[in-house]
Amino acid sequence: MDALKVKQSDFPKRLTRRTLVAAGAAVLLPSHGSAQVGWPSRPIRLVVPFPPGGGNDIIGRAVAAKLSARLGQNVIVENKSGAGGTIGTDFVAKSGADGYTLLFTSTSITTNAASAKKQPFDTVRDLQPIGLVGAGALVVVVSNDMKVTTLRDLIVLARENPKTVNFASVGIGAMNHLAAELFASVAKVQLVHVPYRGAGPAFTDLMAGTVQLHLPSLSAASEFIRAGKMRGLAVTSPQRSPLAPELPTMAEAGLPTMECEIWWGMLGPANMPPAVVQRLNTELNAVLAQPDMRDLLAREGATPRPSTPAAFATLIQTEIGRWAKVIKDANIQIE
Fold first, then answer.
1. Residue 25: count of CB within 10 angstroms of its CB
2. Per-residue pLDDT for 230 more than 80?
3. Pairing mode of beta strands 44-48, 75-79
4. Which of 52, 192, 209, 300 could be joined to 145 by an S-S link, Cβ 3.0–4.6 Å?
5. pTM of the entire structure?
6. Beta bridge partners of 235
7. Confidence tier at 35 by pLDDT (50, 70, 90)
8. Strand partners, 48
9. Nearest one of 212, 154, 220, 211 to 188, comparing CA atoms
10. What pLDDT score was predicted for residue 242?
11. Residue ranges in the chain assigned as alpha helix (H)
């Protein structure tokens, strides 16, 4: 203790008693990171920008329940659907950056950013990535009327008969539309796009042979494939999927550069306290390690994809650029 004893005269004259008291008080104030020690002190709202019942909602609610248990506060899911996810995303982007309003979304946030001429927010600037949750494959499926059994057969047929193979999508600029355009570019084939208002009509016309090709999510198509109502040729994920292990990857089928996935992840408003972002990321990754969470994702055709906030941010920026290039190269006109 003697080492701490100093005479007042030993300090420079400009350090008065009042200055020293103020300096001592400042030392006791919490830093920016430690100021968040009390977070969360109230319930957290997790916005899902899509209607109840879909994959985003199912996975988001499971994540919310798991995080509630780990954080000691309720994480309440709120569906704010509309405009392909834009309404709910805009709500979060404009919310307070205190960690109490978060977003659970999917790949559409990047396809929207790439395709929209104007959004009420900037996906990169106005949102803080927290972490990936999981990712799953699309699948190349063809009508049973098509006399092809492999992806290579499909490519040969489409090359020999330009603009005779019609492919379905759930709308202009949708993920499966852009994925099909990417496939056409990589495979060097010319296809004809037939947009539908939803997955149901697209599947109906594919099974009827009205359209010949579709790239839906594997989770949506797997039952039809197993029932023999359409033919699966390949999955777009880096590895084979446990939902359809018999289907090769695009790389195995001969297109190594054709890889894309549907993913889900959590974001918040920009400028969230770093300590809160890190805490959420840590807890989210812990949730993804739980067996029942892995099982739930598997039922949606997905696998856990724990990540850092920085890695998730890189993925988002990379995919926005990728889909923007597909849109430009294919001259897709999005209203």
1. 9
2. yes
3. parallel
4. 209
5. 0.85
6. 139, 249
7. very low
8. 79
9. 154
10. 87
11. 17-28, 55-71, 86-93, 108-115, 151-160, 175-187, 199-208, 218-226, 274-288, 291-299, 309-329
- At residue 169, what are phi and psi to the nearest 5 degrees? -145, 170
* For residues 117-139, average pLDDT: 95
Q: Which two tokens stand for residue 293?
A: 């969470």
Q: Which two tokens stand for residue 292?
A: 């029942």
The torsion angle over the Cα atoms of residues 47, 52, 58 and 64, rounded to 10 degrees, is: 30
Question: Which residues make beta-bridge pairs with 193?
Answer: 167
SS3 of 85, please? helix
Structure tokens at 61: 């609610």
DSSP characters for 144-178? TTS---SHHHHHHHHHHSTT--EEEESSTT-HHHH
- The closest of 82, 105, 183 to 141, measured between CA atoms, is 183
Question: Residue 115: what pLDDT?
Answer: 86
pLDDT digits (tens, 9 = 90+) for 249-279: 999 999 988 999 999 999 999 999 999 999 9
Task: Report residue 160's pLDDT band, with 50, 70 and 90 as the boundaries.
Answer: very high
In residues, how long is the chain? Answer: 335
Residue with structure tokens 């109490």? 100
